[in-house]
Amino acid sequence: MKICFVPIDNRPVCYNLAKDIAAIDESLELFIPPRGFLGDLRKNAGVNEILDWIENLPETDAMILSLDTIAYGGLIPSRRGVNDKGEVEDFDDIKRRIERLKPLLNGKNVYAFSSIMRISNNNYNEEEKEYWKDWGKKIFNYSCTGINDGIPQEILDDYLATRKRNFEINKTYLDWGLNTLIFSKDDCAPKGFNVDEARELERMGGKTKTGADEIPLTLLARAVEKEIKVFVEFTEPDYKDCISNYEDVSIEKSVQGQLELGGFTPVQSKDDADIILIVNNFIEKQGELVMGWATQTFNGTFTPPDKPYAVADVRFANGADNNFVEQLLPQIDLKNFYGYAGWNTSANALGSLLAGVKVKWRAEKYNDLAFRKLQMIRFLDDWAYQANVRGMINSPCDIKELMRPYEEALAEVFGEIFPAGKIKYSFPWNRKFETEVVSG
User: Fold this and answer.
1) Which residue intervals of 234-276 are DSSP H helices?
2) Alpha-carbon span 218 to 21, nearest angstrom
């Protein structure tokens, strides 16, 4: 199967992870633009280069497209509203760009998504407009309440104009006739402009989904057509109605939404299931390792099922639950183990996990080494770095020695996937938020 895959940007979880998942099945050929074409924290994607690349692709069986990459140059540029020269781009500028893409999709099996512009509940402007450092929380509150608590009118007008531009662009996609079109609710809350826009798109016939970064991967699972019956098992079943951080639906509904979008079949009995999806969910309030929000860690006894299973570790946002992982790792039997994920939001972990599950389950030419490599990277990132080493450092630095004990523990489970002492860590966006794990 040949798949064209255009990511949101060049982060490891958007770029490398897609390739690592596809590598599990050697019969799956993933066409992905050169990484240098894609945007990063400071640079917009080279849209013309990506469109040229698409025009020159061989025939593919499916196209998975992050429409924000073509429309704005990436997810972060969609919020900032300017090009690399600092020039404001209006609706007509964006419309001309996507009109070049539209004829390239005719007659293709297209699985696409576009984000509904998020509203961060903080005064942190690294991924936002400059004025977010002063007015972010108040803009968030205004979005929820309609009460302006001192936001200068020119700032509010600018923000609303960017929202309106993006919303109008999203509405144009409804007429494109794509196989699958998803509008993602990125870093969402139960109330706000983004929730209102999602409802309006739904009234117009659009389909919305909580999440963002993982959605191209969930669409990859959908494009890889194969029925898999899934039974969901929560470690805290009495709390599956609780809402995750950065989301607007319960963890149970988040799971259901990812299964539906990924083309899985939920079942009500373990006996009827092909795969058990274990969700290490939270009690009352999801923890958050970056923000220092505590929650009760897993304190039960974990026993792996006697049939294929995968683990979504969502007790914390932005990293693993150490207590759970320390029980899980010694019990992993690679015969039945189909993957682990615990990065960033609940939707991020779930969508990326399910993509790996689908590719492994349907693999025509299964590559066990690629699967074990994927798991090593996920545990090194989601568990070793995000839940532990990240808290030991103040800024991007050499973390090799700090990571070594975790490398050794994981090698006991997955084998010497990387040459001894040859794993390299970097910070591609020069911040602590993400690290990149590669073999040296």
Assistant:
1) 251-262
2) 11
Question: What are the tens digits of pLDDT across the range 138-183?
Answer: 999 999 999 999 999 999 999 999 999 999 999 999 999 999 999 9
DSSP 284-311: SS-EETTTTB--PPP-S-----SS-EEE
The domain boundary residue, chosen from 168, 195, 221: 221
Q: What are phi and psi of 234, to 5 degrees?
A: -90, 140
CA distance from start to end of the chain: 30
60, 9: one domain: yes
For the chain, helix (H) and strand (E) counts, in that order, are: 14, 15
Distances (CA, A) of 333 to 83, 148, 328: 49, 56, 10
E runs forming strands in 98-248: 110-116, 180-185, 207-210, 229-234
Give the helix ranges, DSSP H, for 151-288. 153-173, 193-203, 215-223, 251-262
Contact 76, 166 (CB under 8 A): no
Angle between helices 251-262 and 346-362 (to 10 degrees): 30
Residues in a beta bridge with 66: 113
pLDDT tens digit string along 66-103?
999 999 999 999 999 998 888 999 999 999 999 999 99
Specify the CATH number for the domain of residue 390: 3.40.50
- Asked if 198 and 319 sit in the same domain, the reply is no
Neighbouring C-alpha atoms within 13 Å toward the C-beta of 411: 14
Residues 189 and 242 in one domain: no
Residues 205 and 134 in one domain: yes
Q: Name the token pair of 65.
A: 């497209």
> pTM of the entire structure?
0.95
Same domain, 263 and 163: no
DSSP bridge partners of 6:
65
Report the number of distinct structural domains present in the chain.
2
CA angle 272, 275, 281 (to 5 degrees): 110
